[in-house]
């Protein structure tokens, strides 16, 4: 990663299956429109409740993508 410059964006991935799936869903969606994705950081985990039970997981993800020269 030497001598690279990155831009950083935050997204929220969601899944009813769990945190790991929410991360993968968010990154997969971002990968459709952003090039040069190099790293991610999980910033926040929260959930949506329905009838007193976990219905969905929501994960805020910071994404770093390398700027082209």
UniProtKB/TrEMBL annotation:
<dbReference type="InterPro" id="IPR036694">
    <property type="entry name" value="Dodecin-like_sf"/>
</dbReference>
<dbReference type="InterPro" id="IPR050049">
    <property type="entry name" value="Dodecin_bact"/>
</dbReference>
<dbReference type="InterPro" id="IPR025543">
    <property type="entry name" value="Dodecin-like"/>
</dbReference>
<protein>
    <submittedName>
        <fullName>Dodecin domain-containing protein</fullName>
    </submittedName>
</protein>
<dbReference type="InterPro" id="IPR009923">
    <property type="entry name" value="Dodecin"/>
</dbReference>
<dbReference type="Pfam" id="PF07311">
    <property type="entry name" value="Dodecin"/>
</dbReference>
